[in-house]
Design brief:
heterodimer; A: about 100 residues; mainly alpha; two-stranded antiparallel sheet; 3 helices; 2 strands; B: about 475 residues; alpha+beta; Arc Repressor Mutant, subunit A; ten-stranded mixed β-sheet; three-stranded antiparallel β-sheet; 15 helices; 17 strands; elongated
């Protein structure tokens, strides 16, 4: 397993376009240690012969929605929590994929 | 060194539905930004996607027309990636159970008809549209959730021409089906081309580059041809090809690097737990398949066998579905199919271009054009007069009214024509003498004189015939 050192978190943060401080990395490391412990606990559960469950009900359906407009939300509501709006668009820093 | 080009193409095509793939928000091109969205499109907490029946119907139509095997059990998966065009942080797609597998498209290549195999067709949702500028990125979520089909070909194409022919053929099939607007310039059909070179005679694939978002069929060919040249030169110089995504710069007529691809991105696909597997009823699939509209190849065949059109005319008409539909309407009112094709292809197209009209703004009533063609054939108007009549038809007028109003009706009354002909002959003894001395051109002159005397209303073919008869009597 990869070492969860400072460089690891810096790289992850960079990939996710977050800026993290050294203090935040320390907190993340502590959280990850706990998470890893929990995962190890889960790994100890014997799942031999247990099939994965994806859906709450293991059954097929035939339902398809008719192509009829039901509702939209008002533009001002859609943009209400947006930090920056420009010409009706959500405005974010440029990151070309 | 001699290289073989290997090309595979992925095409994203927006389906022509009223609402989104998983929400009841409207799909409207050109609406004000962020005005056609709801909670599902924006990925708000607690939302549940609900599959659009019409999108599935259109996908089944496309898969059937492209000879794919249909999977009647519709399942979706999540493709996870983090980017600002994707509000949920994942795209709902069909990674593991595409609605169509296999299939093919037939294209005309230099070696004749060539089958380009398809790998799959799957349904998915579109992302938001982003506009990058100096100030940053502007996002319009109207496009987020629009139903798409992605059509993935096998790497069966070997040149820019074949790649362009494939995209053109696919575009035509999807347009005839009516499943999409297939407007590359508006982004309702988007094309990514994967291209690599390998030494002739080898089978292993070379390192590929991907050219993204080509916005016209002409650019598909240009981009591929540029890329073949670029990769060949690099390989000849002993350099290796870098696996990367490139785009076609129209101004430079060159592909330019967008980003390097370091290995395959892990999208951590897993089955979409919020959409239960949907079993499509066999009857419903059968009904869709039995009611497919006529496809381009079948229509070309019909134009050749039923209307006697040549390859070229049939091809030009079918290449433009609206033009072909218009031609069909004209043929409902006339049996002069070749004339109908000529007038549609040449005169109508030129008139529309001149007026800067598209086919959906065409003011010409197909019955009026058919009536005019019938009048020409019956000798009621000459082909020269028909051009004048056609100008009026393009203004919405009935050809019969135009002919009457302009007093254009062609003179086919033999008695009246004979009177005029004999007058002209009496006035031109030199031409009679010339004719008798073997100068056939004299007839042309005499016909011209009769046309002049009749103010262009004499039936030229009839006049020609009668002059010959009268000359033989003198």
């Amino acid at each position: 397993m990869e070492t969860k050192d400072q460089a690891y978190f810096k790289r992850l943060a960079n990939q996710l376009m977050f800026d993290v401080s050294d203090q935040e990395i320390k907190e993340l490391q502590t959280e990850f240690e706990i998470l890893e412990e929990q995962i190890k606990m889960l790994e100890r559960i014997n799942t031999d012969g247990v099939e994965e469950m994806i859906y709450p009900f293991e059954q097929e359906t035939q339902f398809l929605r008719d192509d009829v407009v039901d509702h939209t939300i008002a533009r001002e509501d859609a943009l209400e929590n947006v930090k920056a709006v420009m010409a009706g668009h959500v405005h974010v820093p440029k990151v070309v994929k | 060194m001699k290289y073989e080009t290997v090309i595979g193409i992925e095409i994203h095509c927006e389906l022509k539905t009223k609402t989104k793939m998983f929400s009841g928000a409207p799909v409207t091109f050109g609406a004000p930004a962020n005005s056609c969205v709801n909670e599902i499109d924006l990925g708000h907490p607690g939302i549940l996607p609900c599959v659009n029946k019409e999108a599935v119907r259109l996908a089944v139509m496309a898969a059937t027309a492209l000879h794919c095997e249909i999977d009647p059990l519709v399942k979706f998966d999540r493709k996870n990636y983090y980017y600002s065009d994707l509000p949920k942080g994942f795209q709902i797609t069909q990674q593991f159970h595409p609605i169509g597998t296999g299939g093919y498209v037939e294209i005309e290549s230099e070696e004749g008809v060539k089958q380009i195999r398809l790998n799959r067709i799957h349904m998915e949702e579109d992302t938001a549209k982003q506009f990058h500028n100096e100030a940053g990125t502007l996002i319009d979520f109207n496009r987020a959730g629009t139903p798409l089909i992605e059509i993935v070909s096998e790497a069966d194409m070997r040149s820019g021409k074949e790649a362009a022919a494939y995209v053109e053929k696919l575009r035509s099939i999807l347009h005839y089906l009516g499943v999409s607007d297939v407007k590359m310039e508006e982004g309702s059909m988007r094309c990514d081309v994967n291209i690599s070179l390998r030494e002739v005679g080898t089978t292993a694939f070379g390192v590929k580059t991907e050219i993204k978002n080509l916005n016209s069929i002409a650019n598909v060919q240009k981009a591929v041809e540029y890329e073949i040249q670029r990769q060949s030169e690099l390989l000849d110089q002993g350099e290796s090809i870098i696996q990367e995504t490139r785009r076609f710069d129209e101004a430079k007529k060159a592909t330019v690097s967008m980003r390097k691809k370091e290995g395959n991105v892990d999208y951590k696909y897993f089955p979409e737990p919020n959409i239960l597997p949907i079993r499509l009823a066999d009857d419903w699939i059968k009904e869709i398949q039995e009611h497919l509209p006529e496809l381009p190849d079948a229509r070309i065949q019909r134009y050749q066998s039923d209307y006697g059109l040549n390859d070229y005319d049939a091809g030009v008409l079918v290449n433009n579905r609206d033009l072909a539909n218009f031609f069909d309407c004209v043929c409902e009112h006339t049996g002069e199919y070749k004339l109908a094709a000529n007038w549609t292809i040449v005169e109508l197209t030129a008139a529309l271009n001149k007026a800067n009209y598209k086919m959906d703004q065409n003011p010409c009533d197909p019955k009026h054009l058919a009536d005019m063609i019938n009048m020409m054939k019956a000798g009621e108007i000459s082909s020269k007069q028909a051009k004048t009549v056609f100008e009026e038809i393009m203004l919405g007028k009935d050809p019969k009214t135009v002919v009457e109003e302009k007093g254009m009706k062609q003179m086919s009354d033999t008695t009246e024509l004979l009177r005029m002909i004999n007058e002209v002959l009496d006035q031109n003894p030199k031409s009679i003498e010339d004719f008798k001395n073997g100068k056939d051109r004299a007839i042309g002159f005499l016909v011209g004189q009769v046309m002049k005397a009749s103010k262009g209303q004499a039936n030229p073919a009839m006049t020609n015939q009668l002059i010959k008869e009268e000359l033989s009597k003198r």
